[in-house]
Amino acid sequence: MQVPFAHIASIDLIQPDGVAVQTIQTDSIAVQNARDPAPGEEVFVMPLAIFALTIAAYAIGTTEFVIVGLLPTVATDLHITLPLAGLIVSVYALGVTFGAPILTALTGRIERKPLLLGLMALFVIGNSAAALSPSYEMLLVARVIAAFAHGVFFSVGSTIAADLVPENRRASAIAMMFMGLTVAIVTGVPLGTYIGQVFGWRATFWVVAALGVIAFFGIATLLPNTLKKAPPASLFDQVRVLGSGRLLIVFAMTALGYGGTFVAFTFLAPILQDVTGFSEKSVSLILVLYGIAIAAGNIGGGRIANHNPARALIGLFLAQAIVLLVFSFAAFSPVLTLITLAALGFLSFANVPGLQLYVVQLAKEHRPGAVDVASALNIAAFNLGIAIGAWLGGLVVESPMGLAATPWVGAILVAVALLLTLWSSTLDRRAALTLKTA
């Protein structure tokens, strides 16, 4: 999973699918040099190396989610069922979940530019192998290979982006790289879906691999060789964070709240075609609408969660569960489906900034020496949620309930996340009251 840039006040740097290792004080993670310079102020120009990282992020963001629009095509070509095709989403997410923290710790001694080049080479190999896969099993292996590159890239790439610019421009550099993820959701996924529908799903993976090659040479040419290494988080630090009950509650909130949407989203293409009645070519256009809603939700959710993330998450999870439940009935109407999907796209990503900010706040209180590790493990929880949601969605599709039931089953997961959030918020109030009376 990737988390597009979000407006969050004063947070530790949050790397999608990777390890957070630096802290930035900022009003919002957004490109801040868009304003007109003051008289006598030097105009800041973003280094070209940042754009090479942005292209890489775009390619990675596209390859993760584009499979959602191609599931019916892949299932038909490989002669597998839709639930089995849904596992292609799950194994990728699991590869990021477990690969990112472990490989980041194991590769900490490697110089960062060679490591980044190696990761992009691995990404190209994984997507090329996917395009050449003669069987379902080989496609799963290829997706895991690409997922390993995915997680570590964002762990390393975001810290590199921050080091390439002056201290007061680090947030802008991080946002510029993460913009590749946002643009991938809005344009890369629907475009990749269209390419796959017209030229075959293998063509989509070839295009993504080609983007990886462009990013590889961009990084090789533009990235400086003198990059300092940041000390990696050890596996022991990661295990120690898992000993905090408060943080485990938030990790569960993340996995269930985010994963609930993927019970239905994983099978969105067949839902749109087989339940709602849209044509295959319409799916890519609908994914554009969904992507725009996701981008808006990520930005809006950050603003909502700035002051009190727990309170914001209660409202967002409640709305998300309701919209998923409504989608179970709206899916039979094309007009209602479009309206509901726009709301669902907004809400499914609006909770991302709040969840990350909340885990950072609690980590500073309960595990102050491992805040970055807690942030990274919450990213792993996002991907675990994707894996669980896609797997559960496959079970629902295979059952007598069928495709139309996936939204309300997802709503149950989000409802559990809502209950956990209410519990966590109650614990927060009790802790605050204890401090006041102490």
From TrEMBL:
<feature type="transmembrane region" description="Helical">
    <location>
        <begin position="338"/>
        <end position="359"/>
    </location>
</feature>
<protein>
    <submittedName>
        <fullName>Inner membrane transport protein, MFS superfamily protein</fullName>
    </submittedName>
</protein>
<feature type="transmembrane region" description="Helical">
    <location>
        <begin position="283"/>
        <end position="301"/>
    </location>
</feature>
<dbReference type="GO" id="GO:0005886">
    <property type="term" value="C:plasma membrane"/>
</dbReference>
<feature type="transmembrane region" description="Helical">
    <location>
        <begin position="313"/>
        <end position="332"/>
    </location>
</feature>
<feature type="transmembrane region" description="Helical">
    <location>
        <begin position="203"/>
        <end position="227"/>
    </location>
</feature>
<dbReference type="Pfam" id="PF07690">
    <property type="entry name" value="MFS_1"/>
</dbReference>
<feature type="transmembrane region" description="Helical">
    <location>
        <begin position="371"/>
        <end position="393"/>
    </location>
</feature>
<feature type="transmembrane region" description="Helical">
    <location>
        <begin position="115"/>
        <end position="134"/>
    </location>
</feature>
<keyword id="KW-0812">Transmembrane</keyword>
<keyword id="KW-1003">Cell membrane</keyword>
<dbReference type="GO" id="GO:0022857">
    <property type="term" value="F:transmembrane transporter activity"/>
</dbReference>
<dbReference type="InterPro" id="IPR020846">
    <property type="entry name" value="MFS_dom"/>
</dbReference>
<feature type="transmembrane region" description="Helical">
    <location>
        <begin position="247"/>
        <end position="271"/>
    </location>
</feature>
<feature type="transmembrane region" description="Helical">
    <location>
        <begin position="140"/>
        <end position="162"/>
    </location>
</feature>
<keyword id="KW-0472">Membrane</keyword>
<feature type="transmembrane region" description="Helical">
    <location>
        <begin position="405"/>
        <end position="423"/>
    </location>
</feature>
<dbReference type="InterPro" id="IPR050189">
    <property type="entry name" value="MFS_Efflux_Transporters"/>
</dbReference>
<feature type="transmembrane region" description="Helical">
    <location>
        <begin position="43"/>
        <end position="60"/>
    </location>
</feature>
<feature type="transmembrane region" description="Helical">
    <location>
        <begin position="174"/>
        <end position="197"/>
    </location>
</feature>
<dbReference type="InterPro" id="IPR036259">
    <property type="entry name" value="MFS_trans_sf"/>
</dbReference>
<keyword id="KW-1133">Transmembrane helix</keyword>
<dbReference type="InterPro" id="IPR011701">
    <property type="entry name" value="MFS"/>
</dbReference>
<feature type="transmembrane region" description="Helical">
    <location>
        <begin position="80"/>
        <end position="103"/>
    </location>
</feature>
<feature type="domain" description="Major facilitator superfamily (MFS) profile">
    <location>
        <begin position="49"/>
        <end position="429"/>
    </location>
</feature>
